[in-house]
Amino acid sequence: MQEASSKPSLSKGRREVREIIEACKAVEERRFNPFLIDIGGAVQTLRTYYPLWRSLEDYSMDAEALKGLSKVLALQNSQLLYRSSRLYADPEIVSSRIKRLATAKLAEIFLRAFHPVIELEQVTAPIIREALSYWDGMTPYSWRRRSISLGGGPRSLSTAELEAMGIAEREGFHEKLKEIEVELRGACIKGPVEYWSFIRSTAHGRVEILDRIYLVSFLLTSGEASMKRDADGNLWLWIPPKGYRGEVESITIPVEVGGE
Amino acid sequence: MEGFADKVRRAAVLLMYRRGRMPGAREWELKAALGKGHEKILDRLSEVLSELGLELYKLRLEDGDIRYLIRVKDPLTRSQAKLCGWRIDNLAALAAAIADIVSKQGRSNRRDLEELISRKTGRWRSLNLIDAFVKSGYLEEDEEGMISLGWRALAEVDLKDLMTLILGASQERRATA
Hints:
By secondary structure, chain A is mainly alpha-helical.
């Protein structure tokens, strides 16, 4: 690991951090001894270049190097524990010993430490009986093949088919909005119409009432219709003239969903 | 009513027949199958096996559970190993792989292992052998190409003995190849 020079530069910093990452990776892959890495020096390098980082890639690289160093530290710790155990053997010595030993001698050594597990894989009478009954009950493949429908591949669906499947509605939202606007304009020819009587006028059931409330709220928000409250607190719908700029007030109308 | 001797026989069948990926049986399986006093039944089975040159071995699994296995008690001779279907160079390759992994604290790079084994068996054979060892459970390979010891190596090989024997082996008979 190189010591950071007195004048750190971004490119040099990136190169050195990349070197740290590579070294840590080599240790993780057991290519280097973990004690070959100077953890203190590497951390100092990261500390020196940290103020220079600008981009996300730089910070990611810094984090990767730190993660690699922490893994090296963990490996140093486990190696110390391993060295204190009876299994410890220097990998270089073991490797050279294996290379030197003749194949037959190595096999002989192995046999002295080898205790193969006993296991039986045998067909028994009950297994054969079970297999025969399964075989007898199986439908011939040619029959099964006939019953497997692979489908006709992807195809387009018409609007009518989508409506029948319940995926598409017969009327779109805009058509419904237009319809209720025409209905409201018709109702307001002689003057303002009471809000709840308009909502309930043609609705059958709670779902349709909610549907009409939802659509009217759109007309009110877009300015196609307007609403006012009289002295008794009743709400009235009316159609404002084009270009009408009245006072805008937000009104909340409580709707009882559970009861009639 | 099943007698004690019947239970011992049942335990032997449970431990010898391979039902899933691994032979043997977990402790809870034996408890469930043999009921109360399963330890006594296993002790008796161990005595019977000992007379046949076999032993009941407890393998501690990664999840902390114990798996009981039956294994050969005394080391095999070369001719016995051949009778079991082992080739001498395959045994040597397995010994080299296990020793290398143990010396590297339980994990070794596949490339290093291939290189080490290829010295004994040749390049292509080393690739096939490592795959075969992984498949049979002696070795385990992760997505990064790191090889570690599999359940079978832990169950069948006395690692301390193997390392001691390799390090203490006489180098008189050096490989001439």
